[in-house]
Design brief:
This protein is an alpha+beta fold. The chain folds into two domains: 146 residues, no CATH class; 68 residues, no CATH class. Strands 1-10-9 form a three-stranded antiparallel beta sheet. A two-stranded antiparallel ribbon has the order 2-11. The longest helix is centred in the last third of the chain and has 17 residues. It is globular, with a radius of gyration of 19 Å.
Length: 242
Amino acid sequence: MNQPQLPEHVRRIETGETFCFSCHPKVDCFTDCCRQLELALTPYDVLRLKQETKLDSRSFLDRYVIEEQEAEDIFPRLYLTMVDDGQASCVFVSEKGCTVYPGRPGACRAYPMGRAAMRRDDNSIDEFFVLLSEPHCHGFQEKEEQTTERYSTGQGLKHYNIFNDRVAALLQHEKIRQGMQLTKQQTNLFVLALYDLDSFRNQLDQEMLPQQDHYSAQQEACTDDEQLLLFGIEWLQGVLFQ
């Protein structure tokens, strides 16, 4: 499979290859990476953030998320709002660091690494990692030695990747690759089932959505947000692609 051309300051990093990096308050660029950015949120990011902020999913989306969809986009994209402080700072960053650190998004955990996951024809995942060596980041001057495995484990990324890969099965579905376009109703169901979990659960409980029999068989397990998200991904497969 051909690998995409990488931009400046980005290079592929092989399994087992070591690099030095650490981020902590004593690094003089601490929190600089929390400013001047567009932070796209995955469904699992929203799940963890709404739990960390102790908000229901609808309240979290209304307060902290911007939804965008250009004419050429098949799926909507959800971004974390930034503060209008001249630096486009993350709404959750403070002088002491991230105020929602235990529930921080996967992209924040991964930095300065990036993971590309592409679905093969046999539905398996082909992944590779890149390292983003931006000149302003001084974390690379630290002596802590990392590998992709060590850093991913330390940042709790593997659990995020499980959910992100499940969502990728939707985004890269064969019908999507063949040019399928979603209706407005399908787009609304996509946001509901993946990002607005509390509303999704309520509508399922009130039998307001299709495939109720499928939900009834798993209803007890779906009291847990993570299980509900996994169900929502599976449910959308049926609703969107029959």
